[in-house]
Amino acid sequence: MRGGSGDIPTTTLFPFLTPADVDSLHQAARAVDEARRYDDTADWEWFPEHAAFSGRQVGTPIIVGLDVVEHAEKGDQLEFLLQVVWTDLGQLAVDVAVNVACWCRTDHATHDVDALTLVVSDETSLPEAFWAAATRLTGWLTEPHDADYWRAKAGLPPR
After folding, report:
1. Are 29 and 83 in contact (CB under 8 A)?
2. Within 13 A of 111's CA, how many CA atoms are on the CB side?
3. Closest Cα to residue 158, out of 85, 83, 76?
4. To which H or E segment does residue 136 belong?
5. Burial of 121 (0-12, 13-18, 19+ CB in 10 A)
6. What is the DSSP letter of 105?
7. Strand 44-46 and strand 62-71: pairing?
8. How far is CA 141 from the centre of its chain?
9. Chain-centre distance of CA 39, in angstroms?
10. In the chain, N or C terminus with fewer CB closer than 10 Å?
């Protein structure tokens, strides 16, 4: 399912959260929406079928996420990602990353040029991890939206 940050069914996806926690998640998501360069509404995606951990699966079960894609000249693509996922061990985690099109000899598509994974635990709540990821993402969104800038920053070969 997809929609704006206000459409995310937070209590369905995370029934263990308090009303204050739900409000915190929505505030963080709105902060990301406001940091976007364009006036359009961010398309958040959520997957109610992933709300409960179902054991080992192929791939990473995404519960809720946002993928901000910037297209540049010559087919380059720059992506800014924020996702709440299940780890292989059944822990909630919040992933945030900048992906850039890769021009390596192996032609394997993209690199995470900056990434952070925050595992939800007794020390870090879901709202805290989500806010930290949202803060990181909003900071990246103020950086140049140019794949060459991010390639240089990560020491990747130019296109």
Report:
1. no
2. 18
3. 76
4. helix 126-140
5. exposed
6. T
7. antiparallel
8. 12
9. 19
10. N
The CA distances from residue 155 to 50, 117, 119, in Å, are 36, 21, 27
| Token digits of residue 71 | 């297209």
Q: In what order do the strands lie in the sheet with 44-46?
A: 2-3, 44-46, 62-71, 77-86, 92-101, 110-119
Taking alpha carbons only, the member of 53, 52, 50, 72 closest to residue 62 is 50
Alpha carbons within 13 angstroms on the beta-carbon side of residue 23 total: 3
Phi, psi of 66 (to 5 degrees): -140, 135
Name the pLDDT band for 98 (thresholds 50, 70, 90): very high
0.85 exceeded by pTM: yes
The secondary element (H helix, E strand) that includes residue 65 is: strand 62-71
- 68 and 34 in contact (C-beta within 8 Å)? no
